[in-house]
Amino acid sequence: MMKILAFAGTNADFSYNRLLLRFMKKHFKQMADIEIYEVGKLPPFSVDTSLSEQTEVWKLKQKIKAADGLVFSTPEYDHGIPAVLKSAIEWMSYHTKVMDKKPAMIVGVAYGRQASARSQVQMRQILISPDCNTNLIPGNEVLIGNVRDTFAKDGRLVDQKAIDNLEECFEHFIEYIQIFQNVDKGELNMAVKQPTISDAYIQFPTGRLSLKEVQQIFSTIPFEVDLIDSTDHFAWYSDKPNREHVRNTASLGETVQECHPPMAVPAVMSIINSFREGKKDVVTRPLWMNGHRSLIQYYALRDINGHYLGTIEFTGSVEYILNLFENGAWDKDATTGASKKTNDSAEEPEEEMAVDASTGASESSDDSDASEDDTPLAADESGLDATTGASETGSVDAEDDTADASTGASENDD
Amino acid sequence: MKIAAIAGSNANHSYNRMLLEFMAHHFKDQDQIDVIDIRQVPMFNESFKGDAPEVIKDIDQRIKAADAVIIASPEYNHSITSALKSVVEWLSYKVHPLTGKPVMTIGASTKDQGASRSQVQLRDILISPGINASVYQGDEFFMSNVTSLMDYDGHVTDEGTIHFLEKCMNGFRFYAKAIDQMNKEMNNK
């Protein structure tokens, strides 16, 4: 179903514009999933606002990315849109392209006969300004005036003409969104049909893989992988089902600052910078995610000469592995069976247990890294990874709880 | 002439605030220009309990004490800043110091168009019934590419710009006097 994010363009306790959106949410529930957003939650726009106050701004950007279309419900104050709505738009167009080409529609309610005509004209101008660049649906004006006659006391829109017009305009808007989505899909299919892609093989020094195999390997291994490239842009993520971090292709190409909650950015940057400067190769963070024990490991990606290529985030639930361990999978009897499968780890039979996840992970980096690179990992095997991380990227792990809390919060929202 | 000059940006480094401060200095022999900083003004909310926040009462008094008002506005998204709109909304709610006041709009921008769209919009906002200011319609002072006309400390370095600003101020002083007289005559009737 179509996902619509609807902005109640006011911070007043009572607002007919909010009532209109609530009416639309109910009335159109079979056509679209409408989420109402309160712009009063955001801090007033200022270029000098500190990062810590911008968490709500970041959350809104994520909501916009996930939405198929935007609806703005605007009152009129002094011939214009309310400052609080303008402030929200300034946030969504400052150092971000989050509204770029996003289908948008304007509705509005006002006490008087002229409805909110002037503020809607202004809103149209604002939404097509270069930094917003929304895909604003032409025409289809929803101007509801004389609220006392058009709304019932319980907040229902009761004027039949107004309802007819609203239905017609909103249906057009949904069609408008579909048309543009189909155009985009058409282009994507063209790209897939190009023969060079389906025929291509990558010749590794250790063997040959088709592109399809590469894709499916990443989708099959029980850990998800994300890549931040050497210019600190989110370049790629593995298409694993049921990811711990739900990613959206709309975020690809974004900077680290854009695709993380503001509070988490300093910690993430300090990890990336420690990799870039060669001070560290791995940072490990065990934590609870989505109700189970998970492990996130960041690895510096380097070429064979050690030049920094980017940062890999390697994330997965370790519940399965921990259960195996807790049920004695590595106890005397089982070892033979287990060690047959993993020859490498059989060399260190005494210490395997708690280390398994990290050893497993380090195997994957064996190919690209020089053999010495493994030693920091091997050295702090028995769960010491976390503390080592703390000493070197102090702020990251010291604030682990808070960082997790904020990350967790936003992840839940996703 | 006593002029209250509102700097329509809440950024710490604002060319519009610097332009007003330059004017306060440059015209100090003719005018007493009181530059109003809006950085402390909270977001307007019509559910606010009470008259108005203290900072708005202060701005209200300073505008009432002035013969005329100048508003310098940047342009964000073809429009005035939310920070300035918030001030205007406060000043058209419980207090109405701009009613009948002669107002000139000016603007500085780092881009080519010099905040022209936001000024057109600001003029339209200022003549709305809740505000009802007497907006000076003459010379339009749009300062585009401001970084080439003003140094980082806020001195306007371009002679032509200074001349035009002086011409605009002359026109506005006459207009403000005429409006003042008109207001007095209307009050006598």
Could you give a quick summary of the protein structure above?
The complex is a heterodimer of chains A (414) and B (189). In chain A, 43% of the residues lie in helices and 19% in strands. By secondary structure, chain A is α/β, with parallel strands linked by helices.
Task: List key phrases describing it.
heterodimer; A: 414 residues; alpha/beta; six-stranded parallel β-sheet; five-stranded antiparallel β-sheet; elongated; disordered C terminus; B: 189 residues; 6 strands; 39% helix; 15% strand; globular
Architecture blueprint of SSEs:
The complex is a heterodimer of chains A (414) and B (189).
Chain A: E1 2-8, H1 16-27, E2 32-38, H2 55-66, E3 69-73, H3 83-91, E4 103-109, H4 117-127, E5 135-136, E6 142-144, H5 147-150, H6 160-193, H7 195-199, E7 201-204, E8 207-210, H8 211-220, E9 224-229, E10 234-237, H9 256-259, H10 265-276, E11 282-289, E12 292-302, E13 308-317, H11 319-326, H12 332-341, H13 352-366, H14 375-379, H15 385-392, H16 394-398, H17 400-413
Parallel strand pairs in A: 1-2, 1-3, 3-4, 4-5, 4-6
Antiparallel strand pairs in A: 7-8, 9-10, 9-13, 11-12, 12-13
Chain B: E1 2-7, H1 15-26, E2 32-37, H2 54-64, E3 68-72, H3 82-90, E4 102-108, H4 116-126, E5 134-135, E6 141-143, H5 159-188
Parallel strand pairs in B: 1-2, 1-3, 3-4, 4-5, 4-6
